[in-house]
Structure formats: structure tokens, C-alpha cells
Write a structure and sequence with these properties.
This protein is of the alpha/beta class. It has 2 domains: about 5-185 and about 370-385, Glycogen Phosphorylase B (Rossmann fold); about 195-370, Glycogen Phosphorylase B (Rossmann fold). About 40% of the residues lie in helices and about 15% in strands. It has helices at about 25-35, 55-65, 75-90, 125, 140-155, 165-175, 195-205, 225-235, 270-285, 300-305, 320, 340-350, 350-370, 370-385, and strands spanning about 5-10, 40-45, 95-100, 115-120, 155-160, 180, 210-215, 240-245, 260-265, 285-290, 310-315, 330. The protein has a 6-stranded parallel sheet with strand order 2-1-3-4-5-6, with helices on both faces. A 6-stranded parallel sheet has the order 9-8-7-10-11-12, sandwiched between helices. Strand 10 (about 285-290), helix 10 and strand 11 (about 310-315) form a beta-alpha-beta unit. It is globular and about 65 Å long. It starts with 6 loop residues before the first strand and ends with a helix.
């Protein structure tokens, strides 16, 4: 197959891939940008979640008696049923590639076509990394590993959005290097901005106040308390700073009301929400998300699409996105919060250096942190499999 030919793909999803609320719109942008790369897509999904009576009983026992976390999709009876549904639909299609962004629906899939996975984490990488992926029973852990290993073994290509995720596949599941690729996800946002637009955005920023933007639904895991402390210290140190919080409604107390704006959830799927979201990204000086655990962080890519530098911790898949001094700065998770403050104060006071950082942030988005570039790269890998 040549690059000019259409590639026929079965795009497998548990949920509705074309719903912008599914996984923050990632499967939607993924699929639509594949279609722009001469990929003909047959959507397999949403799949019927046949929650068995045994799973319901097990969930009740584990959650309420043992007081532990439970994820039913790791149960063999669940993902085997998903595979049966996929197989039935595949029998009616003529496709070259089976593609999924989650391992669960392909973990037990038998088919003649090559299976490709493009995801942001492995079960082993998530285990005890995210709060909801901790406090499992031994059986849940065993099931999770078996599911992940089964999915990886069935793939001809396991593509990960970060070096961190790829390393967990190699180390925990002994996946062969030749099967693994790393291709970052893009920004779940429509962008036709040019470098001229970014320069205009820079000219319109408030130079008398440092605007920090925090976007996240989980205030605790995403490090909202740290972002709040950074804004507080910057104001005490003499740098007028405002922190805008989007995605959640933390109860922070009145003492912070003078420099903190809490906007709650803003739906990007609505025109009004999208406009407000874009205005916030354009008006801010730094996107700050001192998250304690993160598989990837598409929001960093979205921030870079506005030339907005990103500040975060050196954890999970974030280092694949943020490169120190190029599109932001990473800090050590056990380091001093003052490191954030020092960096922000220094770079904010050096207008020329800050402008250069913003322009290079946009360049990172334009060259590697966007869906067209990423989907083209993945398509090239897929063609090599045919």
C-alpha cells in the first residue's frame, strides 16, 4: 500500500467515539484527523456493556464489605464479551487495520487483520499512581495485568503517547522494542492560529499582572492547593498575581478571594464555552498544573496552541510534552514550591525572554503536539503493517 491509497480502519471504542464528551474528545479528534489522512473509518462502538449479575455482586462485596476499589472492565467476562461484539461487527466489514485507543475491547479479540493500540498508559503504569487505581484486591490486580498483557500480545503495534507509558510496557510487560512506538497526542481544540496571531495575543496580555491559569476537575490530584500557594506567595513577594481556576469548585476560603477566580466547569463543546476557554488561554501568562499524577495531559498541548507556557511536575507522561525552556518548565515533585515562584518571577520580568518562550511554545504545538501531525505519523506506521 502506498501513501496515496486509502487505508481502511475499524475504529473500536467502548463508548461513542464521535461524542465530544467521550474521554475529553480524544477519540473524536483522533478519528477525524485520521479521516483527513486518507483513512476510511468504520466505527465499531459504542459497545453494549453487559454487566453480569456476578460482577454486580462482586462490586458490592469489594466496594462495601472489603472497602476497596473495583473496576469491572478488568473482569474476563466483560472484555471477552466486548471482543465477541467486535468480532461480530468485523465479520460484516472489509478493513485493513483494527485500531483502538483502549486495551480493553481488544484484550480477547481474534481477527486476521493487524491490531493497533494507541493509548496513554498501561495498567501497570496506572497501578498505585492514580488514586482510583489503588487499593485493589489481589484478584483485581491480577485481572488488570492479564487484560493488559493479553491486549499487548494481540497487537502488531503498541503506540503510546509518552515515553513513560512506553517504558512501563517494556519493563512491566516485557514488550519487544520493535512493537513499541511513541507518538504524542494532539490538542483537543480547533486551531488555525499562526505565529502572527500569537504575536498579537502577546501584545494584548496585561503586563502589570501575572495571570496563572489552572484547569482540572480533580483539585487534589491536579495540585490545586500547590497552585494556590504559588499565587499567594507571588503576591506576598510583590508580583501582582491572579489565579483562575477552571473545571472544579474548590472550597478555598475567603482569604484568597482577592486574587483567585473560580469559574467551575466550562464546556468546550458549546460555542460559548469554547469562546470563554480560548479567551482564558489567550489572556493568561502561564498554564499551571502541579499535578501529582498524570498519564499525559492534553490540556498542555491546548495551552501551547495559544503560545501559553506550561508549568508542572516531572511526573508520568508530562515530560514528553513539556521541554524545559522551550514550552514551559518542569519541577521536581518533592522540591520546594519556591522554585515555581522564582521561575515565574524571573521569566515574567524579562519581557523578551518571556515572548521567546511563548513563541517556542506555539512552535512545539505546531510541529509535534497537534492531531494532524500525530495522526499522519501513526498512519505511516499503519501503512507499513499492510
Amino acid at each position: 500500500m502506498t501513501n496515496s491509497q486509502y487505508l481502511k480502519m475499524a475504529f473500536v471504542t467502548i463508548n461513542d467515539a464521535l461524542n465530544l464528551n467521550t474521554w475529553s474528545g480524544t477519540p473524536y479528534y483522533m478519528a477525524k484527523n485520521f479521516e483527513k489522512q486518507s483513512v476510511q473509518i468504520d466505527y465499531i462502538g459504542p459497545l453494549i456493556d453487559k454487566n453480569s449479575f456476578s460482577c454486580k455482586i462482586k462490586k458490592f462485596y469489594i466496594k462495601y464489605i472489603l472497602k476497596k476499589n473495583y473496576i469491572k472492565h478488568f473482569e474476563p467476562i466483560i472484555y471477552k464479551n466486548f471482543a465477541q461484539q467486535v468480532s461480530q461487527k468485523l465479520s460484516l466489514l472489509d478493513v485493513d487495520i483494527i485500531f483502538s485507543y483502549w486495551p480493553i475491547p481488544i484484550a480477547n479479540l481474534e481477527c486476521s487483520q493487524p491490531i493497533v493500540l494507541w493509548t496513554d498508559a498501561t495498567f501497570g503504569g496506572l497501578l498505585n499512581f492514580y488514586p482510583e487505581f489503588s487499593n485493589f484486591t489481589n484478584q483485581t490486580i491480577r485481572n488488570g495485568h492479564i487484560m493488559e498483557m493479553s491486549a499487548i500480545k494481540r497487537t502488531r503495534l503498541a503506540i503510546y503517547s509518552s515515553d513513560w507509558a512506553a517504558e512501563t510496557a517494556k519493563i512491566i510487560y516485557q514488550t519487544d522494542d520493535s512493537k513499541i512506538k511513541v507518538v504524542p497526542y494532539g490538542a483537543n481544540i480547533e486551531c488555525n492560529r499562526s505565529i502572527i496571531d500569537i504575536r498579537n495575543i502577546l501584545q494584548n496580555k496585561d503586563s502589570n499582572k501575572c495571570n496563572l491559569l489552572f484547569i482540572g476537575q480533580d483539585w487534589v490530584r491536579k495540585g490545586g492547593d500547590i497552585a494556590l500557594e504559588i499565587a499567594k506567595r507571588l503576591n506576598i513577594q510583590g508580583l501582582k498575581t491572579e489565579l483562575t481556576v477552571v473545571g472544579c469548585q474548590p472550597d478555598i476560603g475567603r482569604e484568597f478571594s482577592s486574587f483567585v477566580k473560580i469559574l467551575g466547569f466550562i464546556p468546550k463543546s458549546s460555542p460559548e464555552g469554547r469562546l470563554k476557554f480560548e479567551q482564558l488561554l489567550a489572556q493568561s501568562h502561564f498554564f499551571i498544573l502541579p499535578t501529582k499524577a498524570e498519564c499525559y495531559g492534553i490540556v498542555f498541548c491546548e495551552a501551547n496552541s495559544f503560545g501559553l507556557p506550561c508549568l508542572s511536575f516531572d511526573v508520568g507522561g508530562i515530560p514528553t510534552i513539556i521541554r524545559d525552556g522551550i514550552n514551559g518548565k518542569l519541577f521536581q515533585i518533592n522540591g520546594d514550591i519556591e522554585d515555581y515562584c522564582t521561575y515565574i518571577s524571573n521569566i515574567f520580568s524579562k519581557h523578551s525572554e518571556y515572548h521567546d518562550l511563548c513563541l517556542s511554545s506555539f512552535n512545539e504545538y505546531e510541529t509535534r503536539l497537534n492531531w494532524p501531525a500525530s495522526c499522519k505519523k501513526v498512519r505511516d506506521y499503519l501503512i507499513d503493517l499492510i
